[in-house]
Each structure stands twice: as structure tokens, then as C-alpha cells.
Inverse folding.
């Protein structure tokens, strides 16, 4: 059976973050509590399992606490409204970037014309 330290190490690897960065993203000051689990000082609490599965809903809560089943559960398809919101946000972001590019191109042209006159 997979141990608490092995499960935490798997979560850290899955997150592609350092132990400290993962701890901070879970709302802690650092990753010391993860270090304590890895070194078998503490186990995985229900509070920690809740925080991890909230951050990574595809990770199985049962697997985190008990090692039962697979680490990754099937990802639920995102709702179309959620996808539409993301698309809308990205479109607004792109428009903002396009406007910034246009302003920078205008400034560059102005600077270029100014230097040519000198």
C-alpha cells in the first residue's frame, strides 16, 4: 500500500512545484508541513486533503487519505458556460494586448521620425 509520504511526493511531482511553492499555493506560509509528512512526523489530514483536492479536483480525495484507487480520477468536462467565460476573458485580454502593441508601434514610429529629423 502506498504511504502518506509517497502520496505527498506524488502530489508535489504532479503539481510541478517545489514543496514550498505547493505549500504556499495551499494557503500555508511554506512547505514545512509537507516536509513533516514526507519524514513521517505527521500524516495527511482531512483538512490538507480537502485543500489539495480543491486546488487539484482531478486528484482523488480517497486516494490522498487512504491510498485507495487511483491518484487521478476522470476529469469532469468543463461546463460550456465556464468555457465561454474563459474564451470571453481571453478575447478581452488579446484586444488589450493588441491595443498595447499598436501604441508601442506608434511610439516607435514617432521616435524613429524624431531621430531621422536630427
Amino acid at each position: 500500500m502506498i504511504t502518506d509520504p509517497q502520496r505527498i511526493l506524488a502530489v508535489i511531482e504532479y503539481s510541478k512545484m517545489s514543496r514550498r511553492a505547493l505549500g504556499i499555493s495551499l494557503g500555508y506560509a511554506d512547505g514545512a508541513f509537507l516536509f513533516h509528512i514526507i519524514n513521517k512526523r505527521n500524516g495527511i489530514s482531512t483538512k490538507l486533503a480537502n485543500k489539495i483536492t480543491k486546488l487539484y479536483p482531478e486528484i482523488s480525495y480517497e486516494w490522498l487519505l487512504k491510498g485507495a484507487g487511483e491518484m487521478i480520477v476522470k476529469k469532469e468536462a468543463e461546463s460550456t458556460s465556464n468555457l465561454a467565460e474563459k474564451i470571453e476573458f481571453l478575447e478581452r485580454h488579446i484586444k488589450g494586448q493588441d491595443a498595447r502593441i499598436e501604441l508601442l508601434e506608434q511610439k516607435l514610429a514617432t521616435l524613429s521620425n524624431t531621430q531621422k529629423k536630427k
